[in-house]
Specification:
heterodimer, A: alpha+beta, five-stranded mixed β-sheet, B: mainly alpha, two-stranded antiparallel ribbon
């Protein structure tokens, strides 16, 4: 028997909500969770209004009009009353506890047929790796299929949070954490074309750009659309006239710009790519002495083995990345070309390409 | 000198022979204050220092709220500076203001008087407690000079463990801030220890446990929390200091350590700390409601024992801070335990309401704070229910709903009671009356501003706005809600400036306070305002401190006096 069926979903304490307190429910577990929320909300509202009205009523009715008024005289205790108002809240919260636990058990137990996505959280971006080997920083799902996320952190604490599907789990470095959900179409989105897009947030404080550690969750209509979207996310079209555009796409996909900057920025804590591009072929100082020439080999090494050569003046914070089909070369091409793009007549082309990718040119 | 009238609970009450000497003019000079062993003077120094810290913490909050007026971009601060400011706000408000607020400032001034004692049990330890507070504050300032920290006041590992990788804070700044919190912990332990011994050993004849004002019960319960929980914080902070200094790897996952262990240690203190903040506030409110309703407190024993119950249950619920990182079984256990705190809290609210029934309620500034507390604390408690409910907490955890909930607890409840207590005991502490009308107006501005600040945060939070966000997308009206909240914060600033103004003005040209301006019957209203250096001329006699029938208004001195036998 499903324990969930034991929760009476009373229409009296149902979903009436003048304040639209919860985002549209886009997963199977959201509906029951919302019911429990509104149960606690209306019980709370009842007591808040009751207590406030009684307090204001007493304050008016028993108001002291002059300091010479006689002192108040009332009962100093009433055991029956006091036991009553201890016991009634006890039963109300016991019920709350019970429905909360029953629903939590459902949320904590992924179904066996869930599609698995490996999630890697790092300061400050998300990587999603699908069962067919495709990796990207968008989470694609489709209606009617449970998805379970197997999550790891590369550095500090993070938390996977998607308000619309009502899941959250801290990702502790050194541990593997799981969440699952099955997307549905919330009533307000019934007439919206697919895919539906929602926000994924990092909910556990993780440093400077914690608030920008976001990713989109796409809900597609069916498996076919889902696979198509994965392919689209994975494919890179290389324009032979401007191969750097594919590089820019990779830059966006790998989340490089959550730290690096495409324009010179003296205050930044991370090497500016424009500066690198401007100094192409010249030597730069390394931390702990030594020099290195800025060229393809150096940049490739910095992407694939970021801890090996640390530029002087910077901290060794860059995470490792892996690429399929040697796609890091696309990024290197872009980086080498960046100076010309920024300063030459191609400036507008770069601006357009950035706009197309949704990159803020800064 | 009058004969003490035990039948009416009156102790030594003879306003006609107020003396010129009092604890303020007892001795002169800066050193006589800095080296004083008088609990009242230590309390006043605490009060001044805490209010100064509150001003600083409040400014940090305003900076944070201003930055959040727009979702995108840097209005005042970049991301890492935003993080430093909310850390600063949290650390100052928790460690420097709210934890010591009521016990160390108000408690120090009135506890021995309420008890009928000349001083606390260990006056030197009391002064040392104050200087540990100063040292702790100095360490936090040093941490700022070393570049500040952006770890959040919770110091969660591994982010708070220095790593050459993290350029956002230095090991020195973190160690200095941790040392500051460590010192403040000791200050808190000394105060708690002192109060427990004082209440056990220095009660005068007749002051039985059940004749103590409820403020003392709540301070006692607080002190138990302080001396049992704070050492765990000290251990945690010490381990983090060592971790930062030499890298022992207890909390560092790169060395096989467990970051969640640190969270357990931290909340084993910091959840009871919530009750260290709220229990004294409940005690203050029991006094405010009873005295200004001029009516015997309802259900004395239920209120007293609910304080003890909250102190005990408060130790068993820390796990609810980790509902999104613990195993399901642990979550279920901690969810059940968390609800246990709700019952004694509800009992208190109902008892305060029943105290107003058939009272003779003087709606003056302290009473307004008492009633404001009941309203705000009710919201604070009720919004704890969805957070204790496992399935719902998964959605609400680490969102603005939690931010709003604990601000209703810490600010709406603890701080409102603190300010109410300052108004209630101001005539006793300073010997002056403040401007009553300005007091009422400031209360309503504060009350309005507070709700304007935090009700939108509940809605933003339940719609999914995560906390500690420097930038946020403008979905679900997040930006409008944040803007309302920011305007509310500035409204509160206006009220606080007003309060500061009329309290300072009362010292300049306030009417001299009578012994008993409100008609209270606990012992502090039976000594002069401000009290003598030794509090009472002779050991007072104790009756039922909530029996007001023996008091009568005297228009000549604008205060209450004992009826002539």
């Amino acid at each position: 028997m499903n324990l969930l069926q034991m929760i009476p979903t009373s229409p009296i304490l149902g979903f009436y909500d003048p304040f639209e307190q919860l985002p549209p429910a886009a997963s199977t577990v959201a509906h029951e969770m919302d019911y429990i929320y509104y149960y606690t909300f209306w019980v709370s509202m009842f007591f808040l209004v009751l207590i406030t009205l009684i307090m204001v009523w007493f304050a008016i009715k028993y108001r002291r009009k002059a300091p010479t008024d006689p002192m108040g005289v009332g009962p100093t205790h009433h055991t029956g009353l006091e036991v009553t108002w201890s016991v009634i809240p006890f039963f109300l919260v016991a019920y709350m506890f019970w429905i909360g636990v029953v629903q939590y058990e459902v949320m904590a137990t992924p179904p066996g047929d869930a599609y698995r996505v490996d999630v890697t959280a790092k300061q400050w971006s998300w990587d999603f790796t699908y069962m067919n080997g495709i990796t990207g920083n968008e989470l694609h799902t489709y209606v009617g299929q449970p998805f379970s996320l197997r999550m790891d952190s590369l550095d500090v604490l993070h938390a996977f949070y998607c308000p619309s599907v009502r899941v959250k789990r801290d990702i502790v470095p050194g541990r593997t954490e799981w969440v699952w959900f099955e997307p549905i179409v919330p009533p307000v989105n019934e007439n919206e074309p697919f895919p539906h897009e929602y926000y994924i947030f990092c909910a556990e404080y993780c440093g400077k750009d914690h608030s920008r550690m976001r990713a989109p969750l796409f809900v597609h209509a069916n498996e076919e659309e889902f696979l198509k979207a994965l392919d689209k996310m994975d494919t890179i079209q290389i324009d032979p006239n401007a191969p750097w555009k594919a590089g820019l796409k990779m830059v966006k996909r790998k989340g490089c710009l959550s730290c690096h900057s495409l324009v010179g920025n003296e205050l930044a804590s991370y090497p500016s790519w424009l500066e690198l591009s401007q100094n192409w072929g010249k030597e730069r100082d390394l931390k702990g002495g030594g020099k290195v020439r800025i060229d393809k080999n150096y940049v490739r090494d910095s992407i694939l083995n970021p801890q090996r050569q640390i530029a002087a003046g910077y901290a060794p914070v860059m995470p490792r990345s892996t690429f399929k089909d040697k796609r890091e070369e696309l990024i290197i091409t872009f980086l080498e070309k960046l100076k010309d793009l920024q300063e030459g007549a191609d400036r507008q082309t770069l601006q357009d390409a950035c706009d197309a990718e949704g990159i803020e040119l800064k | 000198m009058n004969t003490p009238d035990t039948a009416t609970g009156g102790a030594v009450s003879s306003p006609e022979i107020t003396e010129e000497r009092n604890y303020i003019n007892h001795s002169q000079g800066m050193l006589s204050w800095l080296l004083t062993l008088d609990h009242k003077r230590i309390g006043v120094m605490y009060l001044a220092a805490i209010l100064l810290a509150f001003f600083g913490g409040g400014l940090a909050a305003l900076v944070v709220r201003t930055e959040l007026f727009y979702g995108d971009g840097d209005l005042l601060l970049s991301g890492d500076w935003y993080n430093k400011f909310f850390t600063l706000h949290g650390a100052i408000m928790v460690f420097l203001v709210i934890i010591p607020g009521i016990p160390a400032a108000l408690g120090n001034v009135v506890l021995p008087i309420l008890l009928g004692a000349k001083d606390v049990a260990f006056p030197r330890v009391n002064l040392m407690s104050f200087y540990f507070w100063m040292l702790g504050a100095a360490c936090l300032i040093l941490s700022l000079l070393l570049g500040g920290i952006d770890t959040g006041w919770t110091f969660y590992a591994p982010y708070s463990i220095y790593d050459a990788a993290a350029d956002s804070h230095t090991a020195g700044a973190v160690i200095s801030a941790l040392t500051g919190a460590f010192m403040l912990g000791f200050s808190s332990i000394f105060t708690g220890l002192n109060f427990i011994v004082t209440i056990h050993k220095l009660r005068p004849p007749g002051m039985t446990w059940f004749r103590m004002p409820l403020f003392l019960w709540s301070i006692y319960a607080t002190a138990v929390c302080q001396i049992l929980a704070t050492p765990v914080l000290a251990i945690t902070l010490l381990l983090l200091i060592v971790e930062n200094a030499v890298g022992i790897g207890i909390f560092n996952p790169n060395m096989g350590g467990d970051p969640v262990l640190m969270q357990h240690f931290f909340w084993f203190y910091s959840h009871p700390a919530v009750y260290i903040m709220i229990l004294p506030a409940m005690g203050v409110v029991s006094e405010l409601i009873a005295v200004h309703s001029h009516r015997h407190i309802f259900g004395y024993k239920f209120i007293a024992f609910s304080s003890i119950a909250i102190a005990i249950f408060g130790f068993l619920v820390w796990g609810h801070h980790m509902f999104t990182s613990m195993s399901p079984m642990m979550n279920v256990i901690f969810s059940a335990l968390t609800y246990s705190v709700s019952i004694p809290s509800a009992v208190k609210v109902f008892n305060w309401l029943a105290t107003m029934y058939k009272g003779s309620i003087n709606i003056n500034t302290p009473m307004l704070y008492g009633m404001g507390f009941i309203f705000l604390f009710t919201i604070a408690g009720l919004t704890g229910l969805p957070l204790a409910t496992l399935a719902v907490d998964i959605h609400l955890h680490d969102t603005y709903f939690v931010v709003a909930h604990f601000h209703y607890t810490m600010m709406g409840s603890a701080l409102i009671a603190f300010i109410g207590g300052i108004h209630h005991w101001w005539p006793k502490i300073s010997g002056r009356m403040y401007n009553e009308n300005m007091g009422r107006v400031a209360f309503f501005i504060l009350f309005f501003g507070f709700n304007l600040t935090f009700i939108p945060q509940f809605i933003a939070g339940s719609r999914g706005m995560p906390r500690r966000y420097h930038d946020y997308p403008d979905i679900f009206d997040f930006q409008i809600l944040h803007q309302a909240s920011t305007i509310g914060a500035y409204t509160m600033l206006v009220s606080f400036l007003m309060i500061a103004y009329y309290l300072v003005m009362s010292l300049v040209n306030g009417r001299k306070a009578p012994w008993n301006p409100w008609g209270g019957n606990s012992l502090e209203w039976h000594c002069q305002s401000p009290p003598l250096h030794e509090n009472f001329r002779e050991t007072p006699t104790v009756g039922d401190c909530y029996d007001y029938s023996g008091l009568v208004w005297n228009a000549e001195i604008q205060g209450y006096v004992s009826k002539k036998a």
